[in-house]
Design the sequence.
């Protein structure tokens, strides 16, 4: 059951395509189907936080905290053709010798058979410049590059030599620039995960770098996976995550610049966003900074909304897959002020699914 005949789907994508029953909290709708290439010998990299890492302990193969069932490409294609909700397909590569060849093959297949636009979450380590041209010719219009970490030191520690991994900071930026040139401004998105030991200042500087290099920023909140090196690290504090979301939005929309921000010298915490307080109020009230950031459609609306992709539904929700309502905004304001921090607990049902050791821990 390997690619290209088979792909894995996120749990949410599996529900959206009707492979399993279920509805999303507050009737959220998933408008991008996330697919992952799959091989018996798995990903050859070893990123410290990733459920697909080569040295992950145990037998559980969750990824971004949920199972990713394997489905035949043919069945997925049939369902995509008749799905009225999904506007985009996102193909995620892993570090594997066949991943580039199969990504081109699968993208080309979807381009000929399905109405959705196609994105690719690229693996820069196994990509050459000419591959980017082939991906574009195969019908892909957006590229994602998951730096995940905002500095070379942290990148190396969690993805490179620090974990006996193959990735390099320089290669990621080289591919980013090439992708921006080949796919055009606004069509290359970076991914950053908040909560991996970085400061808010480091993130803001990385967002600005991406913006200056004609890209966009997509944000994730760290969530620990059992069996990985970082399994016991808690997600980032909510007030910090909200500030980082605001910073990212202001920079991407050109409403401020990281050089105008004021940071606490000892911690790098953002103290001022470099815009007038009344302007900042309007931005917060719009709710947009707190919505999921991802690939957009031709009208500029985010289609990759990943419902509940990195936190559980409820008051501690990190990325809103829909526009926050008035009550949500009030809660976000409390969170920004550091007045509301839901306690970090791993739900028991989740523990049972991912590891017996974690389940015991949860029951205690
Ligand atoms: S390359 Fe991607 S899939 Fe592989 S271990 Fe790193 S983050 Fe996970």
Sequence:
């Amino acid at each position: 059951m390997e690619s290209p005949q088979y792909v894995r789907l996120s749990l949410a994508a599996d529900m959206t395509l009707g492979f399993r029953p279920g509805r999303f909290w507050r009737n959220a709708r998933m408008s991008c189907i996330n697919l992952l290439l799959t091989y018996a010998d798995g990903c050859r990299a070893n990123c410290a936080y990733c459920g697909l890492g080569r040295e992950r302990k145990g037998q559980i193969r969750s990824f971004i905290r949920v199972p990713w069932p394997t489905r035949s490409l043919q069945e997925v294609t049939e369902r995509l053709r008749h799905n009225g909700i999904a506007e985009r397909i996102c193909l995620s590569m892993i570090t594997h010798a066949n991943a580039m060849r199969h990504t081109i093959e699968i993208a080309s297949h979807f381009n000929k058979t399905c109405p959705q636009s196609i994105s690719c979450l690229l693996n820069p380590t196994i990509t050459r410049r000419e591959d980017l041209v082939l991906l574009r010719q195969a019908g892909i219009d957006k590229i994602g590059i998951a730096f995940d970490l905002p500095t070379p030191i942290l990148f190396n520690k969690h993805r490179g030599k620090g974990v006996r991994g193959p990735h390099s900071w320089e290669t990621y930026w080289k591919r980013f620039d090439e992708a921006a040139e080949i796919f055009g401004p606004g069509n290359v998105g970076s991914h950053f995960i908040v909560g991996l030991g970085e400061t808010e200042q480091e993130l803001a500087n990385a967002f600005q770098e991406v913006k200056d290099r004609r890209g966009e920023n997509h944000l994730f909140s760290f969530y620990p996976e059992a069996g990985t090196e970082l399994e016991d690290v808690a997600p980032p504090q909510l007030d910090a995550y909200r500030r980082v979301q605001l910073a990212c939005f202001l920079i991407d929309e050109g409403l401020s610049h990281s050089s105008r921000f004021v940071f606490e010298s000892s911690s790098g915490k953002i103290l001022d966003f470099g815009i007038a307080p009344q302007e900042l109020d309007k931005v917060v009230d719009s709710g947009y900074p707190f919505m999921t950031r991802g690939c957009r459609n031709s009208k500029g609306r985010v289609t990759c909304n990943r419902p509940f992709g990195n936190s559980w539904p409820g008051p501690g929700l990190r990325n809103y897959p829909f526009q926050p309502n008035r009550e949500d905004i009030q809660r976000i304001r409390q969170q920004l002020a550091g007045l509301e921090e839901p306690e970090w607990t791993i739900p028991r049902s989740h523990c049972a699914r991912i590891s017996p050791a974690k389940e015991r821990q949860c029951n205690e």
Summary: DSSP finds twelve helices and ten strands in the chain. The two ends are 38 Å apart (CA to CA). The chain has a mean pLDDT of 91. Residues 6-363 form a domain with the TIM Barrel fold (CATH 3.20.20.70).
